[in-house]
Amino acid sequence: MRFSFSLFLAGLLLGASASNVLDLEPGNFDSVIGQGKPGLVEFFAPWCGHCKNLAPVYEQLADAFAHARDKVVVAKVDADGAGRPLGQKYGVTGYPTLKWFDAQGNAEPYEGARDLDTLVSLAVGGGLNEEAGRLAELDSVAQKFLAATGDARDAIYKEARALSDALGAASNHYLRVMEKVISNSDAYIEKESKRLASILSKRTMAPAKLDEIKIKANVLRAFIAEKLEEAEEKVESIIGRATAEL
């Protein structure tokens, strides 16, 4: 999808007095979604605390694309009110749930980070950087987890689960990696990293799906970052000793 960066800046600068987030319900959903342009839809509940926390960022996202509505849709559905049938149709079981719809109306769950930069990259259609999906609070826990063994790993996993309650859905990727390592072995990280790298290199999936893969790959890197740094330090040490002996 081509996108004019000038339009994006205009949306940020001009803002809007009324919300630019489209309100969808059963009566107008099909006339907006699947009509030749992709879109991000938030399924929310008015009483949901996490939804209220997301609201300012989501409004900024919609403002940024207010002048590019012919390119992308930013919308929401009250899945606990008038939009309940839509929530049921798309398998919504918690709030907020974000789903990316392609131009034909095919839905994909979005479980990545919910900061403005990441959501803008999603709406533009790919190209997430190496930090997308990473959470500083869990990066350090991930490295401790990989360095530990046995019961210590179980304790660190519980620590990560406790943190995830406050960090939201973006933390799920970290937990899944830990669960896979506990049930299988450390080899899972290298094997899965190679598999995801292969998918990303081929780029045969929809942009939104590629972004999901990129986020998973980025989170895996959090677990091996410390080992990579150790390897680099060892190489530098060897080079230093060899140079000194010349």
Automatic annotation (TrEMBL):
GO terms for molecular function: protein disulfide isomerase activity. Residues 1-18 form the signal peptide. Its EC number is 5.3.4.1. Transmembrane segments: none annotated. The keyword Repeat applies. GO terms for biological process: protein folding. Keywords: Disulfide bond, Isomerase, Redox-active center, Repeat, Signal. Residues 7-129 form the Thioredoxin domain. SUPFAM superfamilies: ERP29 C domain-like, Thioredoxin-like. InterPro entries: ERp29_C, ERp29_C_sf, PDI, PDI_thioredoxin-like_dom, Thioredoxin-like_sf, Thioredoxin_CS, Thioredoxin_domain. This is protein disulfide-isomerase. It comes from Hydnomerulius pinastri MD-312.
